Amino acid sequence: MLETPRVVENGNIGPVNSAKVPRYSGEPTFALLPRLRDLETEGRTADIKIIGAPFDTGVSYRPGARFGPSHVRQSSRLLRPYNPGTSTSPFAQVQVADAGDMALNPFNIKEAISSIEEDALALTEDGATLLTIGGDHTIALPLLRAASKRAGEPVALLHFDAHLDTWDTYFGADYTHGTPFRRAAEEGVINSSALCHVGTRGPLYGKKDLDDDEAFGFGIVSSADIFHKGVGEVVSMLRDRIGNSPLYISLDIDVLDPAHAPGTGTPEAGGMTSRELLEIFRGLRGLNLVGADVVEVLPGYDHAELTGIAAAHASYDLLSLMADLRANA
Ligand SMILES: [Mn+2]
Questions:
Q1: Residue 325 and residue 329: Cα distance in Å, rounded?
Q2: Cα(180) to centroid of ligand 1, in Å?
Q3: Tens digits of per-residue pLDDT, 203-220?
């Protein structure tokens, strides 16, 4: 690491210095941040860790999210250290590092789910905040289990997605990318009074899908609501619903319109723009964000890095919220 010139502010080791090394060269850690293992070699650790979860054995339609982490990292090379959207320098406020990828069994969903929970707990043992890049949405269940264990209570959830992901089973399978939030509700790892889907749209199997979902405690701010009410009103509704609860944000990139994120597993027309998504995130500043994931990026269906760039920027704004919260704690 010492031979790579880096931006260092407030004693925090930041991205590769792009005035000295062009951003398209070298290994693509997220936002060209240091690797966690390099920091640990120097006896340091990180306040915020970015971890890849390359797993897509839970998908029902297009496969390929196992290649999401490496694609989002590659698409994150152009991110710069200062975020004008929040007027903060997240990588200077706290130490942020790329922790690499989890090693997940592609032939055994239950084993992979257990591995994700164990790895998430190990990475947060020192109090770090975790941002996980998937992977299909199956990974949210073990991440929510770990987040609620660390929080010591069920966590609030803002779930950005075209879909509810509270279905029961698919082809008899309990653990899929369409069922994580029903399982999380059944297991009691999410706070039934502080749950909301954001950006949902598209056809359902029937009205029962919505009735079941409501019974678990979920509110819905649909994609149409965002269009009709606007970002400001949506933000204030979400803030009211979440309050001061420990909050987990799960972002399925298919919440964006396919025009903004074509490279995803189950695309639906009529989604929000990436501008709306980033502005909603910025409106959540100060909420007690304890963890987040960004899932369902499929490079095989992406074009010109559209989806990868949207996921990288969404991740950057989530990191900005986490860094600001920790710096002002
Ligand atoms: Mn999903």
A1: 6
A2: 9
A3: 999 999 999 999 999 999
Q: How many C-alpha atoms does 169 have within 13 Å on its Cβ side?
A: 4
CA–centroid distance, 69 to ligand 1, in Å, is 16
Amino acid (1-letter code) at residue 30 = F
Rounded distance from Cα 296 to ligand 1 centre (Å): 7
Contact criterion met (CB below 8 Å) for 226 and 270: no
Look at residues 127, 288, 272 and name the one whose alpha carbon lies nearest to residue 194.
288
Q: Which of 268, 266, 269, 264 is nearest to 300 (CA)?
A: 264
Tokens of 46: 């990180």
Of the options 3.40.120.10, 3.40.50.880, 1.10.287.70, 3.40.800.10, the CATH number for the domain spanning 6-327: 3.40.800.10
In angstroms, what is the span from residue 311 Cα to ligand 1's centroid?
Answer: 14
Helix (H) or strand (E) holding 220: strand 218-222
Tell me the CA–centroid distance for residue 201 and ligand 1, in Å.
Answer: 12
Ligand 1 center to 258 CA (angstroms): 14
CA of 137 to the centre of ligand 1 (A): 5
Q: How far is the CA of 43 from the centre of ligand 1 (A)?
A: 38
Using the mean position of ligand 1's atoms as its centre, give its distance from the Cα of residue 224 in Å. Answer: 18
Go through the chain and tell me how many residues it has.
329
Span from the CA of 256 to the centroid of ligand 1 (angstroms): 12
**Which tens digit of pLDDT belongs to each residue from 89-142?**
999 999 999 999 999 999 999 999 999 999 999 999 999 999 999 999 999 999
